[in-house]
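To the structural biology subgroup,

Please find below the input and predicted structure for Efflux RND transporter periplasmic adaptor subunit, which we are adding to the shared reference set this quarter. The sequence is reproduced verbatim from the submission form. If anyone notices a discrepancy with their own records, reply to this email rather than editing the shared folder directly, so we keep one authoritative version.
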Amino acid sequence: MQKKPLARAVLVTFAAAALLGAGYLAGARHAARADSAFAATTSATGDKTDPKTGRKVLYWHDPMVPNQHFDKPGKSPFMDMQLEPVFADDAGTSGIKIDPGLQQNLGIRYATARRQDITEGFDAVGSTQFDESRADVVQSRVIGYIDHLYASAPMQRIAKGAPIASLFVPDWLAPQEEYLALKRSGMDSGMLEAARARMRAMSIPDGVVASLDRTGKAQTHVVLTSPETGVVSELNVRDGAMVTPGQTLAKIAGLSTLWLIVEIPESLALSAQPGMTVDAAFAGDPTQRFTGKIREVLPGISTGSRTLQARLEIDNATFKLTPGMLMRVRVGAGKPVSRLLVPSEAVITTGKRSVVIVRGGDGRLQPVNVTVGKDNGDETEVLSGLTDGDQVVASGQFLIDSEASLKSVLPRMEGSANAGAPAPASASATAAASQTYETTGRVEKVTTEDITFSHQPVPALGWGKMTMAFGKPSPTAFPGAKPGDVMHFAFRQTDSGYQLTTVEPVGGAK
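Predicted structure (tokenized):
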């Protein structure tokens, strides 16, 4: 009875072994048929065909080392990944193509380059100042003394005709008494007129002379008044001070008109011309608007703000404005001009050039160098590189490339466009080979030919964290690198892959 279960277990074991053996043989035959099919396709037609898609393959490459081409599929010698095929039907087409679903997930949005008639003009800032051309001075024409000072301090508001100072002039007493004596003695009109002329020569006001005829009393005090409504911008005397002829007692700055000084950026200096219209709004109250025309453009660029100043007069009859107020200014002139505009966010400025990513009729995306002009609100003028109706990427430009790095977006996109012809060397390859990249990583393996690192991201190449091998310049190079060490290393791209240039320890950490 015990022999039957034992025999049954032996039979089950043999059956399982037979099934495993049959599966292995079937898999080996299938792989052999696939390899023979690929080899047969290559040998019969001279062309390489992808057995999965049936598309003609030009060569295989590592996307991280696109200039290195291989005649058959396999594992990349540079990184831990499979080589990718480059198909013949993609070789003659520029740009890259992204799956529509992926575009939606990345939030890629498109806009159309369009022509629009816009008025030449620009936005600027300005500030109000006293109108120096309308400033008045109050001076003394005689020798006297300040009997009473009504204006107490500079920048005091004052109305037209308001008193500024009372001046005591002792030299006026004698000519007035002489005039009154001649008048009482009955002298003829000729003598009286001569006495009046003498008083006028001594700067006695006509009002004082008229009061002398009317009252018969001499006056030795005169009140100096403000000739304009404004502020006392200067006050140069105090109570009891002696004044002399020609001395300025005070300076009155009017407020009925003000200067608006517009700060024009240096880049727009050539656009500013006298006669251009100005629409200004007070920064503290946008409803307060003032208009005018530029009277003159002041010479010289401010070294501090790098701006050119333009000046115009604005009416302040209501006295709502005071000097020093900040104004938002729109300067415009001339008739509308047709401009090609794209959203400002669609323009990628790399520092050396401006680029937009254009979608072609087949849906492929490719970078296009453009020459940009002036900004018009949220839009930018394009002078060259685009035509009316072109579709441009307005958002998500930096996510189009999987590494989301500007420095890798454009070179990789352009490299894909030129991947059809296996050129051994080019201008872009030479530039890439001369550039050095740096990162930090842990040494995983060291051989006479290369060092394998588990390294941190390399933003300049758009790489994330990964493990890959870097070639050594010589078998004895970097003897201090040992597995487990954390090293800071630099490398550059060569025809045979990425080669190390320096390897230095990071704090001796392991």
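Summary notes: The CA atoms of residues 136 and 246 lie 14 Å apart. DSSP finds nine helices and 32 strands in the chain.

Regards,
Lab coordination
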